[in-house]
Design goal:
Blueprint: H1 2-18, H2 23-26, E1 30-36, E2 44-50, E3 56-64, E4 71-73, E5 79-84, E6 90-97, E7 100-108, E8 114-119, E9 124-129, E10 134-139, E11 151-154, E12 169-174, E13 180-185, E14 190-197, E15 200-210, E16 217-222, E17 228-233, E18 238-244, E19 250-257, E20 268-274, E21 280-286, E22 290-296, E23 303-310, E24 316-321, E25 327-332, E26 337-343, E27 350-357, E28 361-366
Antiparallel strand pairs: 1-2, 1-28, 2-3, 4-5, 5-6, 6-7, 8-9, 9-10, 10-11, 12-13, 13-14, 14-15, 16-17, 17-18, 18-19, 20-21, 21-22, 22-23, 24-25, 25-26, 26-27
Length: 367
């Protein structure tokens, strides 16, 4: 009897050794949401995992949604917002659960083809409507639902290139530690400046900051000192340094190319991000299909190009730094894949690790 019991114990211990708990393999994985275009195989918003070694894995479809091309999360990371980039633009809110997204509400954005959404610490929401040429203001309410449209900031004007015959609001940002709003308009070559007051956007004085004619400003990223802003320009493939002085006035200073010297083929910038230490800026090039890497001068904010890394795919749209900023992930829209890169925090440079198929990827947002 004792011999049988001993054999049983040995078998149990052996089974445990050969079949470790799954949690031991996934504890270090970081999950991220993927926004997509649903004109092909995609069904909506997906969840992927970035493992500790940089390998990517599909988790599951989290929510069916039409053209959820850009995502944002509230400060508590309990709610996900997704624009629906359609003729009649809408934005959806979801409650985030460990293994699912629960649809809560949907509201109009005030214009056609919303392509960007951001949310403030107190729940105000900005949606940039590309074709509508305007910015819609909403709010995420205490009952988890989105408010109806509170205000629409309509842009006017045009510029010199074919893509600039009318205004095209491409992004809208809340400036940290203030009530200021910066909207980036690709069509008018301007940053639109306003204040959030009484549930509306009140024009600042001045209310616009011109960029270089034909530049096509698209997105921006803000230095941790909140003094330097870096605007990525889609149509002339540059990054412009914008400085905010002590009085709150903005001034466009100098632009640098996102492309290697001598490159002359068509290319269009898409996205831009800065490391949390303020030392490095990254910008994506669609056409050249690369991430441009820049170092930041701590004295004056000027950028110096230090490298270009192939995105291992076609048409890199949005990209994101992982929470610990040891990896950078790129959504390659036309080649239907996501690529991961190991990031050297000292040099800022990137090294390709892996890639995974993804249907029409457009936006990466870590949980």
């Amino acid at each position: 009897m004792k011999f049988r019991f001993l054999i049983f114990v040995i078998l149990v211990l052996s089974a445990c050794k050969n079949n470790p708990e799954p949690a031991e393999e996934t504890d270090n994985a970081q999950s991220f949401f993927l926004g997509t275009y649903t004109d092909g195989e995609s069904e909506g918003i997906y969840l992927y995992d970035l493992k500790a070694d940089g390998i990517l894995a599909l988790n599951k479809l989290m929510a069916k949604s039409e053209n959820p091309s850009f995502l944002a999360m509230d400060k508590n990371r309990t709610h996900l917002l997704a624009v629906n980039e359609l003729d009649s633009g809408t934005i959806e809110s979801f409650k985030i659960y460990p293994d699912s997204l629960a649809f809560v509400s949907r509201s109009a954005t005030g214009g056609a083809h919303p392509c960007f959404v951001s949310i403030s610490a107190d729940g105000y929401v900005l949606a940039a409507n590309y074709t509508g040429g305007n910015v819609g203001l909403l709010k995420l309410k205490d009952d988890d639902k989105l408010s109806e449209l509170l205000f629409v900031q309509q842009h006017t004007g045009s510029s010199i290139k074919e893509q600039q015959k009318s205004p095209h609001a491409h992004a809208a940002w809340f400036v940290p530690e203030s009530n200021e709003i910066i909207a980036v308009d690709l069509g008018t070559d301007e940053l639109w400046l306003s204040q959030l007051e009484n549930n509306q956007l009140t024009p600042s004085s001045p209310d616009r900051l011109p960029m270089e004619t034909g530049a096509g400003p698209r997105h921006l990223t803000i230095h941790p000192n909140s003094k330097w802003f870096y605007v990525v320009n889609e149509l002339n493939s540059t990054v412009t340094l914008v400085e905010r002085d002590e009085t709150g006035k903005y001034k466009a200073l100098i632009s640098v190319s996102t492309l290697p010297e001598g490159y002359s083929e068509s290319s269009y910038c898409a996205d831009i991000h800065i490391s949390s230490d303020g030392q490095f800026v990254y910008a994506s090039n669609r056409g050249h299909n690369s991430i441009g890497v820049f170092s930041v001068n701590n004295e004056n904010g000027l950028l110096t190009p230090i490298g270009h890394e192939s995105t291992h795919g076609d048409w890199p749209r949005n990209f994101a730094l992982s929470p610990e900023e040891d990896f950078l992930l790129v959504a390659n829209q036309r080649s239907n894949n996501i690529a991961s890169f190991k990031r050297d925090k000292t040099t800022g440079l990137l090294e390709f690790v892996s890639e995974i198929k993804a249907p029409s990827p457009a936006c990466i947002l870590f949980k």
